[in-house]
Structure formats: structure tokens, C-alpha cells
Amino acid sequence: MSTPARFEGKGVVVTGAAQGIGRAVARAFAAEGAGVVLIDNEADVLSTTVDAIRAAGGNVEAVPGDVSRRADVRKAVDLAVQRFGHLDAAVQVAGIADFIPFLEVSDESWNKILDVNLRGTWHLVQEAGRAMIRDGIRGAIVITASTNAFQPEAGGLVYNTSKAGQVAVMQTAALELSRRGIRVNAIAPGIINTRLSAFVINDPVQSKVFLDRIPIGRFAEPEEMARPILWMCSDDASYLSGHLMVVDGAMTAGLPEPGEMDTPLPGAVRQME
Questions:
Q1: What is the spatial distance between Cα 211 and Cα 207, in angstroms, rounded to a whole number?
Q2: Catalytic residue chosen out of the listed positions 159, 162, 189, 237
């Protein structure tokens, strides 16, 4: 039976933790007793988030940094070990996107998005895994992928590719690390009320089109992704490894009933999660 303190004494690292899903995950871990290191490249927003969690009684530390740089990720992992004694869980959330037509994708966009989304994921899983094995920790790692990993969106070549790659990283790591006592899983959110999806949620036409495709009838809040992520990191999921958990309100379960959802989507550019 889960308790409010199920992560008491645990050390955790969360990337992309300044806002959105990452912030919700960091807050949830801290509320359940974990010591959390938050890493994000937006230092000002990160500082505000850390102050808010501390004001609520949470035990957190901040590392302003870029997950595409291994040294920054290693700094966060090392800080968790130094500050909290060991690293028990690591959650990758940091990600960016640039939705443009396939034939207009530039080398710059390809490199930037894959550096953050895919290279950043590899860095965290590898650095966290090394620390856990070194210290004899039977830990858990969760990657935040997307339904785009298996149901790509037109205009999202690089984002789609990065998300499919994250699933491959998760599965490979699970195959190799599970025997060392480290469980590796991923979550595939649908449309969440974050900055990344604001262009859909705040547009009356696009939001209606997407809501027609979501049987549960609404967009999700970041906290609704934090709860399954924490479950995957908890002892309640002790036999779960190598799994992609889809949390999308049944959006990708099958074809929706025909109707207004067939309205063409206007073009748009998403900036960051």
C-alpha cells in the first residue's frame, strides 16, 4: 500500500524540471519525502520552482544546465549522491520541438532537437545507471517519450524521430540494466497542458479538433503524468521494466468516430515542453 512518504530518504534527479511535467514530477517526489535535484536550462524559472517546492517543505537542489552536455547531467547525478547519499530514481522530461514541413527541416533543427531529446536522454540514463550500479542501488529510471513515438504527427519529423529513439534507448537499457537491479521504463503522454501544447489548447479550432480525437474528452494536466511516473519509480512497480506506458485518454487506442475531427489542422510551431 502506497503512503505519502514512500520515497522518504530517496535521492532523485529530474530533468526539464523548471515547469510543465518536470515540475509536477519534482513536486510530487518532494511531497513524498524524496530529496530531488532539478536540472533545467532556464535558470530563472528553475529558481522559482525550487523556491516554491522548498516553501512547501520539499528538500530540493537546483542545477542550471543543458542535458545535451554530459557534464551538466553528471553534475546533477553527482549532486544527488552527495546531497542525499545515493541516487534511487532518475526521470527524463527535458525536450524541445519544432513542427515544420518535412522538406523544410534544416540540419540545425535536426541537430538541436536530437541533441536535447535523444542525446539528453542517453546522458541521463547512462549517468544514472552508472551511479546506481557503483553504489549498489536497485533503482528506477523513467523516460518521458510521447505518443509521437508510435503515431507520428505530420510536420514533426525530428520530434517524432527523437521520441521513437527514446523508446529504443529505454528498451535497450532495460535489457541490459534490469539484471543489475535497475528498472527502466517510459511514459507516452498524449496532449498535456504544458507550453509545448499551448498552440493547440489555446486555439479554439485546433483544440476542438484534438478533443474530438480524445475519448476521455479533455486534455491532461502535468500532475496526471507525474502520478504514473512516480508509480513506475516505486516498489509497487517492482516487476515493471522495459515498458512504454501510454497515458493519453485513449487518444491512440483506435480510430475515432467520424465527424468534425476531420477538420484540417492549421500549421503551427511548437517551442518547448
A1: 6
A2: 159
Q: Give the count of beta carbons closer than 10 Å to the beta carbon of residue 259.
A: 8
Q: Which residue has the cell 517526489?
A: 29
- What are the counts of helices (DSSP H) followed by strands (DSSP E) for the chain? 9, 7
* Average pLDDT rounded to a whole number, residues 56-68: 98
Cell readout for 123 is 546522458
Strand order in the sheet with 89-92: 59-64, 35-40, 11-15, 89-92, 140-144, 183-189, 244-247
- Find out whether 100 and 21 touch, Cβ atoms under 8 Å: no
Return mean pLDDT, the chain.
92
Hey, CA dihedral for 248, 252, 253, 258, is it positive or negative? Answer: positive
Cell of 181: 537491479
Whether residue 239 lies in the annotated active site: no
d(CA 30, CA 13): 11
List residues bridging with 185 in a β-sheet: 142
Whether residue 257 has pLDDT greater than 80:
no
Cβ-based neighbours of 190, under 8 Å, separated by 6 or more: 147, 214, 219, 220, 246, 247, 248, 249, 251, 252
With a cut of 90, say whether residue 200 has pLDDT above it.
Answer: no
Q: Are 210 and 191 in contact (CB under 8 A)?
A: yes
Written as nine digits, the cell of 238 is 517492482
- What does DSSP say about strands 140-144 and 183-189: parallel, antiparallel, or unpaired? parallel
For the chain, the residue count is: 273
Rounded Cα gap, residues 119 and 105, in angstroms: 19
Alpha-carbon span 113 to 94, nearest angstrom: 11
